[in-house]
Specification:
Layout lengths: L2 E3 L32 H4 L6 H17 L5 E7 L4 E7 L4 E4 L13 E3 H14 L9 H7 L33 H4 L17 E6 L2 E9 L3 E2 L12 H10 L13 E3 L2 E2 L23 E2 L25 E3 L11 E3 L20 H17 L15 E6 L4 E6 L6 H16 L4 H6 L5 E2 L4 E2 L4 H10 L13 H6 L32 H4 L2 H10 L20 E6 L2 E9 L3 H19 L5 E2 L41
Parallel strand pairs: 4-8
Antiparallel strand pairs: 1-9, 2-3, 2-7, 3-11, 4-5, 6-7, 9-10, 12-13, 14-15, 14-19, 16-17, 18-19, 18-20
Helix pairs in contact: 2-6, 7-14
Amino acid sequence: MRLIVVLLLLSILTGCGGSAGGGGGATINSDAGCTGSCALTTPSFLSAAEVNRIISQAVKEAQAHLAANTTIAVVDRVGNVLGVYQIGGASNATITAGRAVTGGLQGVAVGAEYTAISKAITGAFLSSEGNAFTSRTASQIVQQNFNPHETNQPGGPLFGVQFSSLSCSDVAWNKAAGGSRGPHGAPLGLSADPGGLPLYKNGTVVGGIGVISDGLYSLDLNILDTDMSVDELIAVAGSSGFSAPTNRRADRITVDGRTLRFTDSEAISTNPAVAPAMPSGGALVDVPGYFTAAGGVIDGTAFNTAASGYLADSSGNFTGLNAFVLVNGAGVNRYPAIAGTDGLMTQAEVIQILAENIRVTNRTRGQIRLPLGSQAQVNIAVVDTNGAIVGLIRTPDAPVFGTDVAVQKARTSMFFSRTDAYATLNAQPGFVVGAAGINNGAISQYTTNARAQISTTAFADGIAYSNRTIGLIARPFFPDGINANAAGPLSLDYSTKWSPFNVGLQLDLVGTKVVNNILTATPAATCSAVSANGIQIFSGGFPIYRGDTLVGGIGISGDGIDQDNFISFIGLYNAGVALGAGSDIHNAKVAIRADTIMGLPGGQLRYVNCPVAPYLDSNETNVCDGK
């Protein structure tokens, strides 16, 4: 996928002031011309008073729409829940795909507070100083066709991202274990239901607001029309004064020639500037594991400080590369570069792989970032064959969602390339939650389909699978983008079962723990025995080999999928060159890559796909050829 930024932005790169929607409140300099370092030079966070103001603005809009049951959640950039406020008391939201399909999360009723938190986290986690995305943007890029409602188009570029940043992820902290340090997990993962917006101060992301008032946790099925979503209008009013910089919004960015959506309507009914300092007409509510109402709303944390869980690297391993890491409560790196726990990679090799990947990142043209010519910003994770994280670094303004996703990608590409993947998958329990009436069947349905559609020895024969490959066989149409086709082996039938709330293997591996978290308010410690934070099914991950031996996986997330794909592939190749023949670390040899499997519908699978001319400092083209 090629991502192209709208050229009109060349005239407005320095910002234009003002806030989105209605009369608006005083903007907190949200349109400052930040390009990735404002959070470092001017640390910003939401104060408790500002959280109350945001909620109050949203409450007034909800009351104007007579939205009797409304839940409003505000989070900071790393997912700390700063306040959850309800009008009309406790209520549920029913998960619905808006189509006559069954299974998965379809029809499940969950507490509205959980959906509002997931929406707020989505707005915060998907955004940065270079791009501002909403839950409506997410809806556009996770469905079976891109754009939704356009048939015979490939699946969304971030197909599957909704099942990331889950509360059962080992990368995410829950409130009790993590304090203020992020990233925190979202109860339902990332949301595709309009009503989640990012919040900005001084040109940088400081959090997100999520709203639900219509009783439905759904998505936008038709990108070609314009909705008047009350959830979204309430969120727009709440974000007034903290709205996304106009020249960073999703509706200023195009993907494959298609303009992304930020909101459908911002025609709010109230003037947020005259909302009272404190909300009234409802109350703060407890959400066990996420927010305690008794103490009132709380301050957010400033990003890239020890309190946020993200901090500049001080190891000396990545000097001059502008590397950042995740830290614990004592400010200690959670995932320092270490030798593989399986004894198959040395610490020096892990350091070299991480360093070469960040070097490539620092040269790569960002494709979902403004202004034009910005450097890519990504998260980089390396795992060993046990799935243990043996190193994780990032650039300073990489979107937070990519922290968890980079690890998912590394684990996914590594796991499916193992010779015991078939047996391990078959041993996993299916997605069954009797209390919610869910029974998606055995995991073996997917391995059986893979052996019928891909290879009679699939996932046990040493073939190397990249995330791009796994993504292609996890689509509801195989090959991807031809709506008349049957589902891929890791997916489900589109007409009767598939939806973004029931995608197949990806959800079935984690679904029981996701639902039980909501039913019991006790987040599980790990999402799955296959991958402790779940698998991911879009590009940006590759297995790592020494000679003919699988030794780990690399995952990249934060920019366009072709950029993630390119950086991880070339970064690993460059690390092999730097380490030399004595190490013999490299990408999978061509002979064992999944794109050597022939005779499939549409020809063959894809393993790697790179941008034609990705570098900022070079006109070099076709850089992945021969590697």
